[in-house]
Model the fold of this input.
Amino acid sequence: MTTTDVRGAEIADYLGAVRAALVDLDPVTRDGLLEDLPEHLAEVAAADPEPLPARLGPPVIFAAELRSAAGLAAPATTPMRPEDPSVSTIDLVRSMLTITDRGIGRRLGYDRLWSLITELQPAWWIVRGIVVFWAILAVVDSYLVATLCTVIVVGLSIRLGRTAKIATTGAPKIASTLVSVICIAPLMFGLFVIIAY
Amino acid sequence: MDATQLLKGVLDVAVLAVLNAEDGYGYDVLRRLRSAGLDDVGDASVYGTLRRLYSAGALTTYVVASDEGPHRKYYALNKTGRDQLAHSAKVWRSFTSTMDDLLTAQGVAA
Done:
């Protein structure tokens, strides 16, 4: 399946979910309201590689905003009620994460917090290489050898991070994530030791 | 006070103003509003507002074919839309002027 196919399916899914949330409208009104939405979603998908719900919010919330902006009455049983089965917990969690992501991000001068995290990624690749330095030092007990090894390891860590970032297959991403996860535990332990003593 | 709440009341004026400068399709209108400083404006709000203004007879549409992407439906102001923009802009300027005077008279710093 190509990227275009995947995005096409993603657009169809998102559109279907928005349409489902507007099921109470009469068909003519609903079709008129959604007439250009496929093209709009295609523009959004082409401009932004992240999943549509991350960019636009959950489909039920998008539908509620669309309905409100179009001046149409809210449904008798609003889809925003938590007990409504059409609003899943996942949708609500996604919505909260999106709000947090944008809210914190803008206070820091970014569109989204995720944009800042993405920019900080290379710094993390270096930090996790330094964690390996501690590990090497613990084994060889020589600053000179550990430092020389670390230069190589930091280089490899940056290369792995960069490869994973632009990779189209999952293997480099899994490898990079695995290395990060392995490095987080000793890093936390090291910080704890520094703070405690 | 949350700017998002204020925006809801004046999004019509903002959309009409953007289209008065130049015809545009949904995503283009959204982008121009954001680049003008309305960062918090949502896709669904703009898209819904365009559909409402169109249904109310303030806009006309035409489709422009594109070889590279989907065909785009452009929105343009008609006379009703231009009249609505002129009236709304007048109301908005009068309202903001009144609020400015009120805040100044009450000694609220800018």
Q: What stands out?
A: The CA atoms of residues 110 and 116 of chain A lie 7 Å apart. Confidence is low (pLDDT under 50) at residues 78-83 of chain A. The interface with chain B takes residues 32-33, 35-40, 42-44, 46-47, 56-57, 62-63, 65-71, 106, 111 of chain A (CB under 8 Å). Chain A has nine helices and no strands.
